[in-house]
# Entry
Amino acid sequence: MEHSVQQQTNFETENKSKFSLREIIFKYLAYLPLFLLSMAIFIGGAVIYIRYAVPKYKATANMLVKSNDDNSISASGNNDFINSALFGGKRANIDNELEKLRSNTFLSRVVEKNHFNINYFNEGNIKRSNLYGKCPFVVEDWKISDSLTTYTFYIKFTNDKSGMISSKNKTLTANFSTFQCDSNIILNGIQFKIKNKINDRPALNQVYVVQWKPIRTATIDIHQQLTVSSTSIKTTIIQFSILSENAEEGKDILNAMIKEYSIINIEDKNRVSRATIDFITDRLAAVTRELRDVTNDLQDFKQKNGILDIQKEFGFYFDNSYINIKAIDAIDVNIKIMDLLDEYIKKGFKENRTVPVPSSLGISDLTLNALIAKYNDLQIKHERDSSQLLGNSQLILDLNN
# Structure
């Protein structure tokens, strides 16, 4: 009896399990069309996105800032700010260089010199394709009426030397003007020229887009896609990376940044060299005049006193006093150089100008040479930071002090 009850119970459980599975399958089978429709929508959306989304390319570059074992300012004054930035320096100097490379002032200079604010596109039915480096023509000789406005122009060539242009209608079916290559074009108060490249021919009836951006706008766009960092706290390698719609454009931006960085450092170093040369030139002119006067006075003395040969007449006296006279002259020259340096610095403060002090004038005082190098360091840093910071910022106030 118990065996029959157990079999019946197992049978009912099996039927219940089969019924539940069948019920679940039929329950969700009713939504099968919805599942298939959802899959079709998702797959179709992915295909469309892959087909029409604008890809982003990442370009990366590394720059080595060489460092010396001695990070202090050398006694000769040669290890100034520029040398420490280019060829070595403390960790703080690397951090300062990172901030300069990220600054809008530096990026604006890169954008303006390399025309990264002018973009060329191929106008498609759904999206635009970036034509950086591949556009068959260039637009030059811009004369912009409002440098804070972005201008967009649609261009279609009807032959190799002429075509249609519009700033409103991208299909160029209305509101367009005609143009000739290498001739001045005036549109919306803006003047420019379209010049064909020698080895390229524009596609006829293809709509090209030329966009001119303000330097500030283009700088902000690049800044948002740019990353500048140090690879390690133990190294002096600076790494650049940027996201761009065009791989060649990203690479050129990074190369331009590295090149411009070197140019700026060389310019700063040349400013100190020019100041030194000007100072020495002025001093040489003064010394030449003094020597001429001394020579004339000596000649007059010889003639008045009938002295034919000073060395012969007073040889013993000159032999003993020559060394002393030479030492006195050297001290006198150093005193005059220091007086001129003092006057040079005071005049700079009075005229409120940031001119580097000559860094090497043959002065043997090690402390003075170190102070001159440090002074030039602060002058250059003040000039750079004052263009990026407000005058009442704590950093500027500290530099002024």
User: Anything to note?
Assistant: The two ends are 108 Å apart (CA to CA). The chain has eleven helices and twelve strands. The CA atoms of residues 118 and 212 lie 5 Å apart.
